[in-house]
Amino acid sequence: MKFLRPIFLSVFACLFSPLAAAATITVINTNGPGEGFNDPTVVPALPSNPFTTLGAQRLHVLQTAANQWGTRLLSAIEIRVQVSFDALSCSGTTAVLGSAGALTVHANFANAPVANVWYNSALASSLAGSDLNGGSNDIDAQFNVAIDNGTCLDGTAGWYYATLASDAAPTGRIPLMPVVLHELAHGLGFQTFTDSDSGAFSGGTPSIWDTFLADAVTGTTWINMASNAARRASAISDPNLIWKGPNVTADKTNFVSLAPALVVTAPAAITGEKTVSTAIFGPAVTPPGISGEVLAATDASGVSLLDGCEPLTSNVSGKIALLLRGNCNFTVKVKNAQDAGAIAAIIDNNVATGMPGMGGEDASVTIASYGISQADGNALRAQLAIPTIVNATLGFGAQLAGTQISGGTSYVRMYAPNPEEPGSSVSHWSVDAFPNLLMEPAISSNLFSDTDLTLALFKDIGWRVNAPTSIGLQSGVAQSFSIPAGAYTSSFYVDVSESDQTLRIDLDSTTATADVDLYLRYGTPFPDTFGDGRALTPNYINELGQYRSISSTNDEWLVVSKSSVQPLRAGRWYLLAINYGTVDAASSLLATRLQTVAPAAAFSVNFNATGSADSPCSTTEWNDPAIVSASGGNPGTTRGAQRRNAMLRAAELLATQLQSPVPVIIDACWDNLGTGNSITLAQAGPRFAFRDDDLPDVFPGGESPNEFAFLAQKYTWYAGTPAARLAGTSLCRMGFLSCATADLRATFNNQVDSAAALGSRSFYYGFNAPPAGNQDVDFLTVAMHEITHGLGFVSFVDIDGSDGPAGSEFNGYDDIYSANVTWIDNGAVRPFNLLSDAGRVQAITSNINLRWSGVSAITSSFNPSNSLPVPDSLPRLYAPLTVEGGSTLSHFEPSHHPQEMMKPSITGPQRDMRLGRAILDGIGWSNLASPLPPDPRPPGGFYYDPQHTGHGIEFSPATADSDVYILLFYSYDSGNNPEWFLAAGRFVDGSFVPEPDRFGHSLQRYTYDNNRTPRAQIDPGFDGQVRLDFVQAKNAPACANAQAFDGALAVMTFTLGGDRNQQWCMQELVPRSIRPSNDRTGTWYAGSQDSGWGTSLGSIPGASADNGGLFGILYYYDGQGKPRWAISATGDLQSGATLPLLSRSGYCRSCAIPPSFPEGRDTTIGSIGYALALAGSPGSTLSYSASWPGPEAGNFARTNSPLLLLSIPVADQHPR
C-alpha cells in the first residue's frame, strides 16, 4: 500500500487581468532607530524565521502575514500598511496585543457595489480600480512591545516570531503571526464605522457592514433600523447580533462545529444542554461525546475537599468527576481525576458570573474536560446530595457553535456583550464559536495562520478573493509548483467551454527520480482529505478519478474528447497530482484546450523485440541485407529495408484511419508459421486486457485495483489498445507497465519469401497496389489486417477448447468484442455473451447466423445489408460448420463481405479498413460524440439479492449531505447468527464509494461496551470492503438474469472476513412505486447522546393506503457487545402498537439458498413498539427490549427513546 499526505498549495499563476491580480500589501515601518521593528537586539534564528535581530524577526512576521493576505485578495491597487511596535495597554492579567484599522473611508466611488455606504480605503480602491487615497497609507497597525519586556501578562516571556505553525511557540510565549493576521484583517475591512456605543452612523453615513449586521429577533439590518438607539441596543444584545452575509452563512459549516455542551440526561429535574467552556489542554471532545455517571469528587486535604487539588479519595473510576474551581491550576484538577480513573472531568465555577477559563498546559492529561457555570454546578451538586444518580454527556448541542437562528436560517453571531467593550464589541465574531475563529476578540491557542470565515466575510463586503486551494489553469500556460515526497495536491482545475473539442493535460517533473501520477474528474472536486482529516489512499483516489495517468515515470498526460466515455463537456474539470517519489518533485501542469479534435498520434514499430519459448520472435528479417530494387513506391534497396518500410507504412495508414490521440507501440516479429500452399501468413493480437469490476486484483508490477472508470462497459474485458484509447493516455500509463512495452505483437511467416511456402509467390512490399498480374501477397494488407486484430478485432472466447471448455469466456467475463455478437437462432436474436458455453459453440458453427449487432457497423455504408430490417441487416461473422482456430468468430463472413480487409483469408490488396473501422467503433475506437453518462440517485430503502435470501441492505442518502449515503448490511456470522455492518460515503458517478476508516476498511463492524466512551466503536480486526454500482449492474455476471422491480438494480461487491470479492445483484425489496403515501422508509437513530444502535424501516403495502404496513430491522448488541439484528413486521401500522422482535438464523453468505424456510429459524427475542411521526418530522419514539439467547446472552433495551432520521425523508430524495 502506498500512503500519501495532502498538501495545500498557495501558488498562483498570473492568469488574470490586472483587476484580478493578487494584492500587493506594502509594510511601512514607522518605528524610529533602535526601537520596535528596528530593535538591533541579537536573537537566535528560528526554523521559520532566519533573521537574527529582534526588529528584523518582527518585520519578517509582519511581511509574511501581509503576503498571505495579499495572495488571498485580488486587487490591482497597492495596499499600504503603516506599522509600529509600541507600548500599548497591559497589566499582569490583561493586555492589548495589537490594534489596527482603516485610516480613511470612502463612499459613492466608481464601481461601488452599494451606494451611500462607507468602505475602507483598501477595499474601495480595489473596487474603483484606482488609488482613492492618493498614495497615502490605508491601514494603521500597532503591536505591543511590552509583551517582550516582561512587564505585563504574568508568566509570559514574550512574543514568538515563527511564521509556520509547525514551528511551535515555547511555553510562555505568544505567537505574533495570528495576531498580525487578525489586526490586518481589521484594516482590510473587518470593522464597522458605526459607533456601537451611540448607534450613530459615522458622519451620518452607514458602513457596508451595516447592510449585514442584523438583529436575530426581528431580522432587521442595522442600515434599516429606525434609530441610533435601536442599533445601540443591538450592539449589546448577545446572542442576537448576527451577520446576514450570504457567503459567511454558506461557508460556516466548514469552520464551526456543533457547540460543545454538557448534556444532562438524568434526573429529569435538570436534564438538558448546559453551556460550557472548553479546555485548551487535554484531548478535544469528538462526536458522539463522552457519556457516563457524574460524581462529585473529593480529595483528602487542602483549602477545599471539593477542588480536586490533591489526590482524590472518592471512587470516580469509570465516571465523570465534578470538581470545584479554584486553589490550583485546572490541569492539576483534571490530572488528579484522570489518575483516579475518571473518564472525563467537569469543573464548576466558584463565582456567580462567567465560566471557568480552562487554561493551562500538561501533555500528560489524556481525558477531556469542560467548565460549567456556578449555577449549573450547584444544580448538579444538589441532585447528587439527595442522593440521585446524575448521567451526562460531554458532547455537543443541536446548533452550530456561535450561531443563532433567525427566520429559520442559522447565522453566525457577532460579539455583543453587555456592557459594551470598546474596540471589541460588534467588530468581532462571538467568542462562542467552536473551534475558535481568527476574528474573535481574543487570540486562542488553536489559531495560527488559518483565515477561516474571514475570507467569506470579505467576499460579503465586496472583496474578490483567491481561494488558496483553487488554482485555475489557463490553456497553453504551464503552472509550476512542487509536490513534496509522498504527497498529493488537489489544488488545480481547468474550465472548459462548450466549443472545446479536446482537453489535454500534461504533468511533467524536472526531478528525474520523481514518480508522479495524474488524475482528472468532472464537476465535483477531489476532497483534500477524508472526512476525519486523514490523507486519501491511492485506492480511494482511483475510485474518484474518471481518468488517470499513473505510470512509474516523471511525466504523465491525458486527453479527453467529446467521444470519451466521460465526454468532454463545458464546466470545471478538477485535477489531482501525486508524487510517489522519495524526494520533492519540481513539477508543472499544462492544460491545452482545442476547438478541434486532437491530432492523431503515431503508431510506432519496434523492430528489436525479444521473444520467448511460447512467443518466438525473430528480428533478423528486418535487417536482411539482400539487395533488391525499389518497388511500388517503396524506396528500400535491401530486403530488410523494404520490409521495415512496408511495416511502417501499414502502421501509418491505420493511424491515419483511426485518428486516435493515443499512440500505439507494435512489436514486429518473424517466425516459421508453416510451409506449403495453405499457410498462416501472419498472426497478431493484443498483449494485454483490462476490465473494470471493483475487484482488487493484483497486476504485474505491483498493486493496482481492477477499476477503470473510463471503460464504457463494466465487468467486460477490453483489449489493451482500445482501453488506452478510452483512457485518453498510453497503455503503459494505465497502471503497471513500462512505457517501453509494446501494446500488441504482430508476427509474420518468414517462409513466405522462400520457396518453402506458396511456391513462387512471395510478399509484395510495395506502397502502391501490386501491378496487374502480380500474384504476390500484399504485405501491407496482411500487416494492417493483423494489427487490426491487435487493436481489438478479436474475441476472447475459447472457440476450440485450447485453454478451457470450448465456448467459455476468458476468466468467466464477457469481452467487449463478443458483447457485440449475436446469434440468430431459428429467427430469435440471442446475445452471444448470454449463451452457455455449449450455446456459444453452436453459434460459432452456425454458418451465416453469427452476426455483429453494433450500431455503427449495421448502419455503415460498407454493410451491404444496411437497408434490410433486423436481423437481416446485421453484418455477418465467420462461422464455418467446423471451428477454424484463429479464424472463426473474429473475421467477417467472406462470401457476404468479399471486399473487407478483415476476411479470414487474403484474396488481394485491401488497405482500407471499411466495415472493420465500424467494428472498432463498437469496442472503443469511436470518434463520435458520446452521450452524457447517467448519474442516477437511487431510491432509499431495502435491497436484496433473490439468490441470497435472508440477507439484505438498507441504503439511503444521509440527512447531512444528499451526496453521502449510508449502507447497513444485515447478514450472518460464521455461526449462522445475525450480524450487521455499516458503511458511509459519497455517491459518485452512479456508484456508492464509501470512505475507508483508519484501519482501511470501508465496511465496518461495531462493538458495544457500556463502560467505555464512545460505547460503540469500530472493530479494528475486522476486514470489510463494499461498493455498490447502479449504472453498470446489468453488465455484471451476478445480474445476468436479474429483473429490476422498479428500475433500481445494483451490483454489490464486498469482502467480509473470509468471503472475499463476492458480487451480489441487489434489487429493491419494496419498490417505491407501491409503498404507502406516508412512506417512513429510512434509517433512524437516537441521536448523538445514545448512538451506536438504530433501526431501518421499510413501508410496505398494507391495510391502509396511507400508512400501510411496516417492515423493520433493529440493530442492537448481545451481551458481549457483538452486533446483532432482529426483524419486526406488521401489515397494519398502528402507532404505539407492540410487535414481536424476531431473530433469524440458519443462513450464511456463502451457503446455498435454503430450499425453504424451516420452522424454528425465527426466534422471538423480545418486543418493539414504534410511535412514528411522518418521516422528517420530530416526535418519533421507540421502545424495545431484545434479549439475545445463547452463550452471549444479554438484554439491550430502550424506553421511549427519541427517534431521529439519519437518512433523508423519501419525499425529499432526488428523483430517479
Provide an overview of this structure.
The chain is α+β, with helices and mostly antiparallel strands and 1216 residues long. The chain has 15 helices and 63 strands. It has an eight-stranded mixed β-sheet with strand order 13-12-19-15-16-17-18-14, with helices on both faces. An eight-stranded antiparallel beta barrel has the order 45-46-47-48-49-52-53-54. Helix 1 (54-72) packs across helix 3 (176-188). The longest helix is centred in the middle third of the chain and has 20 residues, at 639-658. The radius of gyration is 37 Å and the shape is globular.
Strands, helices and their partners?
Layout: E1 5-6, E2 25-29, H1 54-72, E3 79-86, E4 98-102, E5 105-106, E6 119-120, H2 121-128, E7 139-144, E8 158-160, E9 173-175, H3 176-188, E10 213-215, H4 228-234, E11 241-243, H5 246-251, E12 258-266, E13 272-275, E14 277-278, E15 290-296, E16 320-324, H6 330-339, E17 344-348, E18 368-372, H7 374-384, E19 390-400, E20 403-406, E21 409-413, H8 454-461, E22 471-472, E23 479-483, E24 487-496, E25 502-509, E26 516-522, H9 538-544, E27 547-549, E28 555-561, E29 571-579, E30 585-594, E31 603-606, H10 639-658, E32 664-671, E33 682-686, E34 689-690, E35 698-699, E36 702-703, E37 716-719, H11 720-727, E38 744-749, E39 763-764, E40 777-778, H12 779-790, E41 814-815, E42 821-825, E43 828-831, H13 837-843, E44 850-852, H14 855-858, H15 915-925, E45 941-944, E46 952-957, E47 964-972, E48 978-988, E49 991-994, E50 1006-1008, E51 1016-1018, E52 1024-1029, E53 1049-1056, E54 1059-1068, E55 1082-1085, E56 1094-1100, E57 1109-1117, E58 1123-1130, E59 1138-1144, E60 1162-1171, E61 1181-1188, E62 1194-1202, E63 1204-1205
Parallel strand pairs: 1-24, 2-3, 3-7, 8-9, 15-16, 16-17, 17-18, 22-24, 31-32, 32-38, 37-41, 39-40
Antiparallel strand pairs: 4-7, 5-6, 10-11, 11-21, 12-13, 12-19, 14-18, 15-19, 20-21, 23-30, 24-29, 25-28, 25-30, 26-27, 26-29, 33-38, 34-37, 35-36, 42-43, 42-44, 45-46, 45-54, 46-47, 47-48, 48-49, 49-52, 50-51, 52-53, 53-54, 55-56, 55-63, 56-57, 57-58, 59-60, 60-61, 61-62
